[in-house]
Amino acid sequence: MIPAPAPTRTPTPATARPLPRLRALSRALALALALLTAAGAVAGCGRPGSPPVKGPQPESLPVYRVATPFQLPSSPTWEKARSRGHLVVGAKEDQPYLGEKDPATGVYSGFDIEIAKMMAASLGFDPATVEFRTIASANRETALQNGQIDYYVGTYTINDNRKKQVGFAGPYYMAGQSLLVRRNEEHIKGPQDLAGKRVCSAAGSTPYQRLQKDFPQAVLVAYDTYSVCVDNLLTYQVDAVSTDDSILLGYAAKVPDELKVVGKPFSKEPYGIGVPRGDNALRFALDDALAAREHNGDWKKAYEATLGLSGVPAPQPPAIDRYPAS
Ligand code: GLU
User: Fold this and answer.
1) I want to staple 181 with a disulfide (CB 3.0 to 4.6 A). Which of 27, 59, 185, 248 is the partner?
2) Which pLDDT score is estimated for 54?
3) For residue 322, is it within any domain?
């Protein structure tokens, strides 16, 4: 489902701002589209004649064995969670097959959510008790630094800049930056075609930063979330959405009549589990847990029941980068 546009923190540049009357019209159109999409997702089907919209089926998800007894006294984050009685994990809520929150039940699902749950089980917590909190791309480091969350699983690229602020276990998946356009788009086939085009991405994301640096001719539009970018694409307010292929394929799979992913990925986005910087004990425990879940088949089963539904067969997970304590 593509939720209705949320208020944004980052304003749309003046160049990409439609006229007031048009804006009202397109907002109404965006809302109608979002409702249509939501109705389709709820009913389990898209528009008449299109294939059913498949979401992760709870019965196909693996059941993760909880490690008991488990102790990690050298991790202040784990100790805090233990006295609280459950883990608090940051995630995304609008990324199909990765991290999605059902607006009716409040239940989160997707590959990132499964990774978060299998990690919880390996840390000795019942995965059903994990409390998920939606945190946008631009707010992840602050949320980890403030202790708002114990760890973060949400298409979070590991890089040296972010490593100065947070720690990363993993990677557990390798994505790459790509482009989403309307199905009838003929001119945009890759990032080389973005000059003068309005391109939307999330504030604080690596794809946004890459566009700014490597494709300065593109007219950048930033919102807090990719679902708002997709609504803007469907209503002709932007010409493309750029972020990780894993995210874009999910949106395209939900409305294949309207959207397509074009070109080859033009970056490497290794996904890590964000932890508070300095909590090396937690980071190493998560590295061990990932290795074990990849080895025992849980990783693959989780992938196939979630992200695999957007059409890409399970890849080999990338090698875990257990970098020295920091
Ligand atoms: N993986 C990229 C990043 O961490 C893009 C996806 C996202 O914004 O979560 O910035």
Assistant:
1) 185
2) 60
3) no
